[in-house]
Structure formats: structure tokens, C-alpha cells
Automatic annotation (TrEMBL):
Annotated TM spans: none
Matching SUPFAM superfamilies: Nucleic acid-binding proteins (SSF50249)
Organism: Kytococcus aerolatus
A molecular-function term among this protein's GO annotations: single-stranded DNA binding
InterPro entries given in the database record: NA-bd_OB-fold (IPR012340), Primosome_PriB/ssb (IPR000424)
Gene3D superfamilies named in the record: Nucleic acid-binding proteins (2.40.50.140)
Region of interest: Disordered: 150-185
Protein name: Single-strand DNA-binding protein
Top-level lineage group: Bacteria
One Pfam family from the record: SSB
The entry's keywords: DNA-binding
Length: 185
């Protein structure tokens, strides 16, 4: 059976929730809202005509990293395996759209981000001991207790042609190559 992979942009619509499955594997879920916008040619205004909703899920270390990185309202780009399922009960029926994320990132067309590489111990497998699974549950609980990531200062470039802009350009040029592996600020 072939699988469908898609890339979707949208906003994190619910606060991401980190859980631990029965086998001890951490998993994360959140709802993603993707607005469908159209330009009204008569008024020149862009209007939202519909919203596509989907559930995004991730597993293991990816889930923990996403939990520590995402918050409700942030713009993201999600790439992953698409699953569409019809469902029905006695009273209602509908369709569920789920995206099992293989890659998630902030949409940098709409803001700034700061990447921090983390060194994590290997996650316990389902064959590990009860103590290992308990340690994983404690990891998920500590992640749940953490506060939202702190807000980083925003860099606002100086006006073109100003003294500040000339200073900034000189500093950037002099910083290039000054420290290996470091980009100019």
C-alpha cells in the first residue's frame, strides 16, 4: 500500500499535549488550522473563506522536542504521512484528517525562531524495564510542568541608508570569518 505524504502550513490551534502510550512511548498531538484565503477582486481584501482542520501527531524524541518548542497560535510548516478516515456513530458521522509528522518547523515567513540542538539520552523501548518506563513518564511530566519558552528579542533591521544601517553592515562584514562556525549577528 502506498502512503501519501503532504506538506501543510497553518497555525497551531490547540496547546500541544504530550502523553505516554501503554508501551511507554511518548506521543504528542495538537490541532492545526489552515485558512483558505481568497482575494475579493471587487474590494481588494483577502478573506478567509474556509478553515481546514487536522490533528498532527508525533512520537518519541520528536514529540518531546515539539512539546518544548510549540505553543498555541504559532505558524508552522508540517510534513508527514496523511491519514483520512471516515467514521460514524448512531447519531453523527464525519471525517478525521490526521498528519503523522516527520518534520515540523516554525513558518519563518511569518516570524523568527531560534534553533537549539539538544542532547537527550536514548528513549526507552517497549522491551525495557518498568523503571525505564517510569523514567520516561517522569520526563513527560517534567516537560508538562515547564513554562512556555521564553520570548527572544526581535531583531529589527535599521532603515536603509541610515548611520545605524552603515554601522550594522560594517560590523556584519568584519564578523564574517572571525569565528569559525558562527554567523554574524
Amino acid at each position: 500500500m502506498s502512503e501519501t505524504y503532504v506538506t501543510v502550513t497553518g497555525n497551531v490551534a490547540t496547546q500541544p499535549v504530550l502523553r505516554v502510550g501503554r508501551t511507554g512511548t511518548p506521543f504528542l498531538t495538537f490541532r492545526l488550522a489552515q485558512n483558505v484565503n481568497r482575494l475579493d477582486r471587487t474590494t481588494g481584501v483577502v478573506e478567509t473563506i474556509a478553515t481546514n482542520w487536522m490533528t498532527v501527531c508525533a512520537f518519541r524524541a520528536h514529540a518531546v522536542n515539539l512539546y518544548r518548542s510549540l505553543a498555541k497560535g504559532q505558524p508552522v510548516i508540517v510534513h508527514g504521512r496523511l491519514r483520512v478516515q471516515d467514521w460514524a456513530t448512531d447519531e453523527r458521522s464525519g471525517t478525521t484528517v490526521e498528519l503523522e509528522a516527520t518534520a515540523v518547523g516554525h513558518d519563518l515567513a511569518r516570524g523568527q525562531a531560534c534553533f537549539v540542538k539538544v542532547a537527550q539520552p536514548p528513549l526507552p523501548q517497549s522491551t525495557d524495564t518498568a523503571a525505564d518506563r517510569r523514567q520516561l513518564r517522569e520526563l513527560a511530566a517534567s516537560a508538562a510542568r515547564e513554562a512556555a519558552p521564553e520570548v527572544l528579542p526581535v531583531f529589527i533591521p535599521p532603515e536603509p541608508g541610515s548611520e545605524e544601517q552603515a554601522e550594522h553592515s560594517e560590523q556584519s562584514v568584519s564578523a564574517v570569518g572571525s569565528e569559525p562556525g558562527r554567523a554574524p549577528v
